Automatic annotation (TrEMBL):
Similarity annotation: Belongs to the RLP family.
Membrane topology field: Single-pass type I membrane protein
Any GO CC annotation of this UniProt entry: plasma membrane
Keyword annotations of the record: Cell membrane, Glycoprotein, Leucine-rich repeat, Membrane, Receptor, Repeat, Signal, Transmembrane, Transmembrane helix
UniProt KW Transmembrane keyword: yes
Protein name in the entry: Leucine-rich repeat-containing N-terminal plant-type domain-containing protein
SMART domains: LRR_TYP
Keyword match Cell membrane: yes
Length: 921
């Protein structure tokens, strides 16, 4: 070492200690964090130090196997090799160091140490003096009974046990209870997959218990919370671990309590907040855990308070200002009400504050005294009033401020924008007006009342600008240079797009002008963008031809949405070979011609909407190799011919929405082709999410489209991946309905109306249990309505009119809830809700007869009078006696639920859902 040449006496060198006898024997060597690399050989002289008692080589880079010659140092009491860079098998010779009291072989390296031969039992069998065993990151790969018994049988004096991320299995063996001296237990990041044993509460000196990320389950024993010496308890990220809290007495030593992402429930005791030694409290992501705050006295040590995503409610007391050491507060996604107490301004150590997604109201306090504040998030509350500029003065460390989704008004606070460290400001969905101050990075002022902008925008360093859903008007403001995200959508901008707009978008990935009043053509300069991934000009009055260079030159484009404009001419056949388009929406224009052949280059395409144009083409078999398709809309064009593609069995296995309505397709619906639409069959098993394109973390484009659902045109602002729809209506399809459609178990909407389909309604339609809308009207279908349709409990729209169906409409089922219009135009149908009743002839066939009667049936009249009289005896007392009504409803419900147990289950589910909704509200 460089410093070892300072004096001739090595006992005075840094990192070296000698015995007190003056013999010059080195007994301690500390070379930790010295940047040593390479191996250890005899030339180092290390293994000649026979009297060495303490050796620390931690945090170096030896990058070699652990030398067996460490066994020569037989006087070692402490051996620390944490993250020293040693790899491979731990040698058996380490077990010869019988005087060891502390052994640390922990590692963070993926290619670190392992214990196979010898295993853990062999390593510790002779180390009876050991008090500290730290093997974090060592690959031990042992079962619970094996490693537990190995420790309990060989290490009776063990005080510190740390084996995190060691590939250990559970459960915790009962033999571990014999290690009565244990004070620290760290076993996090192992797959214990077992309940927490009661014996952990019996360690008389336990100060730290860390079992995070261990897949624990069952009920956590309350007695562990009452260990008087316990300072750290970490059970976080054990989602199957359940429990509740006892009352906490005041003579506890608890400093850190981490229970985030577990499944604790019940009422959290307020006494925990009053533990004078408690410094860190993390209960976040326990959605069933309820509670409220007590009054806080001044002599508390609380520094970190994390209660996000629990079920706490009530108000935040003024006494929170007494917690002088509090530096981090996270209470997001709860049910707190009332005002944010002004005393929070006294928390001078505060650096992180998140009160978002609650029901706080009133004005926000000043934060001027919290000079260390870096993060403030108050989004989605009911906060009101103006925000004085003085609230933010002197906060030179502030980087993130979120005040969105409240009811703030007045001018935007200029002092907030003047903070030099500021990177992110989110003020969306308020009532701010006035001018936008200069700002360097992220700015979200969407959903406000901004009417006018300073032109040009003097925001030279801005990278993200979101102004959508304001009342901005006039011409489009030229965005600042170096911008990466621009959203001007849903305003009142008029006139045309500036001809040079593309010159300012050289580094832009997202550009949206949708839902304005723009006219004119798309300027050619838009093709000058090099990094553009999303271009949305939809819902304007733009006209002219789609520029070829837009499609040909932009090889990074993922989303192109030109829907609902007045574009005409042909779709440019210029899609590049490296096309990465995910969404192409050209619907609602005046486009003609055919589907471009080069579109087949876009093998990543998921959403294609060409609906409501004048395209005259055959079925787009040229797209048959695009396996990523989710949405195909060709609605209201002049497509013709057969559907399906000759020479192949099928395509598009992920397809979930198909709309071919109002075209001139003919022939049969091909069974083989439909068979491969697996997305129609598997949608019910998909995760509930939306079709979207994510540009960066937290920034994404949301796909949308128009679909016809239950006879109405609806705008799907977000397309759920579980929404499955098929519309083949208003074509010339003929022949029977393919049985394979009965496999589309995830269908919500099916429309085959206004074709020339024949044959029977397939009984397999009874498998479409998610179906909400079924339209088979205006065909030539025959036979009876299958009884299986009565199983479709979600069906709310049914139209079987104008076919050749016959026989009785199924009774006592969902069919009886539809109007007669759903069945009209079928001369052979009878029974309610139609006006024709059915009678049975001797041949077991049904005939129709009128409801009108020419004779008076006195027997029938007397039965009716008796029925009315009996009904009155029962009904009148129920109308005028509340106690009778309560008794009657309770007992009738009990009878009904016994007959229909599924109804009882659904009723309970709806009740629980209503309770959750009331909590959210």
């Amino acid at each position: 070492m460089v410093k070892w040449n300072s004096t001739p006496d090595c006992c005075e060198w840094p990192g070296i200690a000698c015995d007190d006898g003056g013999s010059g024997r080195v007994i301690s060597l500390d070379l930790s964090s010295e940047g040593i690399n390479g191996g250890l050989d005899d030339s180092s002289g290390l293994f000649s130090l026979q009297f060495l008692q303490n050796l620390n080589l931690s945090f170096n880079s030896f990058n070699t196997t652990l030398p067996a010659r460490f066994a020569n140092l037989t006087d070692l009491i402490s051996l620390k090799l944490s993250n020293a860079g040693f790899i491979g098998q731990i040698p058996n010779d380490i077990s010869k160091l019988t005087k060891l009291v502390s052994l640390d072989l922990s590692t963070n390296s993926f290619l670190g140490l392992k214990l196979e031969k010898p295993n853990l039992a062999t390593l510790v069998q002779n180390l009876a003096q050991l008090e500290e065993l730290i093997l974090d990151g060592v690959n031990i790969s042992a079962q619970g009974s094996d490693w537990g018994k190995a420790l309990s049988s060989s290490l009776p004096n063990l005080k510190v046990l740390s084996m995190t991320n060691c590939f250990l299995s559970g459960p915790l063996d009962a033999s571990l209870a014999e290690l009565r001296s244990l004070s620290i237990i760290r076993l996090s990041d192992n797959n214990l997959s077992a309940p927490v044993p009661e014996f952990l509460a019996n360690y008389p000196k336990l100060t730290a218990l860390e079992l995070s990320y261990c897949h624990l389950n069952g009920i956590f024993p309350q007695t562990v919370f009452q260990i008087p010496t316990l300072e750290i308890l970490d059970l976080s990220f054990n989602k199957l671990l359940q429990g509740s809290f006892p009352e906490f007495h005041q003579n506890l030593s608890l400093q850190t309590l981490l229970l985030s992402n577990t499944n604790f429930s019940g009422i959290f005791p307020q006494t925990v907040f009053q533990i004078p030694t408690l410094e860190i409290l993390d209960l976040s992501s326990n959605g069933l855990l309820q509670g409220s705050f007590p009054e806080f006295h001044q002599n508390l040590s609380l520094q970190t308070l994390l209660l996000g995503l629990t079920n706490f409610s009530g108000t935040l007391p003024q006494s929170i200002g007494n917690l002088e050491k509090l530096s981090r507060i996270e209470l997001q996604f709860n049910h707190f009400t009332g005002t944010i107490p002004g005393s929070i301004a006294n928390l001078t150590q505060l650096f992180y504050l998140d009160l978002s997604y609650n029901k706080f109201e009133g004005r926000i306090p000043s934060f001027r005294k919290s000079k260390n504040l870096t993060y403030v998030h108050l989004t989605r509350n009911n906060l009101t009033g103006e925000i004085p500029s003085g609230h933010w003065e002197g906060l030179l460390s502030l980087t993130h401020v979120g005040l969105g989704n409240n009811a703030f008004n007045g001018s935007i606070p200029s002092s907030l924008f003047a903070i030099p460290s500021m990177q992110w400001i989110q003020l969306r969905n308020n009532r701010f007006g006035g001018q936008i101050p200069e700002f360097p990075n992220y700015l979200n002022l969407s959903r406000n009342l901004l009417v006018d902008l300073e032109r040009p925008l003097s925001l030279p360093g801005l990278t993200i600008l979101d102004l959508h859903r304001n009342q901005l008007q006039g011409s489009i403001p030229v965005p600042p240079p170096s911008i990466t995200y621009v959203d001007y959508s849903s305003n009142n901008f008029s006139s045309y797009i500036p001809p040079t707009i593309g010159n300012y978008l050289s580094f832009t990935a997202f550009f949206s002008l949708s839902n304005n009043h723009l006219t004119g053509a798309i300027p050619q300069s838009i093709c000058n963008t090099y990094w553009l991934q999303v271009l949305d000009l939809s819902n304007n009055s733009l006209s002219g031809a789609i520029p070829s260079c837009l499609i040909e030159g932009t090889k990074t484009l993922r989303v192109l949405n030109l829907r609902r404009n007045n574009f005409d001419g042909f779709i440019p056949d210029k899609f590049p070979r490296s096309c990465v388009l995910k969404t192409l929406d050209l619907s609602g224009n005046n486009l003609q011609g055919k589907v471009p052949k080069s579109l087949a280059n876009c093998t990543t395409l998921e959403v294609l909407d060409l609906g409501n144009n004048q395209i005259n083409d055959s079925f787009p078999c040229l797209l048959k190799s695009i396996s990523s398709f989710r949405v195909l809309v060709l609605r209201n064009n002049t497509f013709s011919g057969l559907i399906g593609c000759p020479g192949i069995n099928g395509t598009w296995p992920r397809l979930q929405i198909v709309d071919l309505a109002f075209n001139h397709f003919r022939g049969k619906l091909p069974h083989i082709f439909l068979e491969t639409w697996e997305g129609m069959m598997e949608g019910e098993n998909r995760h509930l999410e939306y079709i979207k394109y994510e540009l960066m973390i937290g920034v994404y484009y949301q796909d949308s489209m128009t679909v016809t659902v239950k006879g109405l045109e609806l705008e799907l602002v977000k397309i759920l991946t579980v929404f499955i729809s098929a519309d083949f209506s208003n074509n010339n399809f003929e022949g029977p309905i393919p049985e394979v459609i009965g496999k589309f178990k995830a269908l919500y909407v099916l429309n085959l109306s206004h074709n020339a389909l024949t044959g029977r309604i397939p009984p397999s339609f009874g498998n479409l249990l998610q179906l909400e809308s079924l339209d088979l009207s205006s065909n030539q279908l025959t036979g009876q309505i299958p009884l299986q349709l009565a199983r479709l409990s979600f069906l709310s729209v049914l139209n079987l009119s104008y076919n050749r169906l016959e026989g009785p409409i199924p009774t006592g089922s969902q069919m009886q809830t539809f109007s007669a219009d759903s069945f009209e135009g079928n001369q052979g149908l009878c029974g309610p809700p139609s006006n024709l009743v059915c009678s049975i002839t001797s041949g077991s066939t049904f005939t129709r007869r009128s409801n009108q009667r020419k004779e008076f049936d006195w027997n029938f009249l007397s039965a009716e009078l008796g029925y009315i009289f009996g009904l009155g005896i029962v009904i009148l007392p129920l109308m005028f006696c509340k106690r009778w009504r309560t008794w009657y409803c309770t007992h009738v419900d009990r009878v009904i639920f016994r007959v229909f147990p599924q109804l009882d289950k659904r009723s309970n589910n709806l009740g629980r859902r209503a309770q959750r909704n009331r909590r959210r509200q």
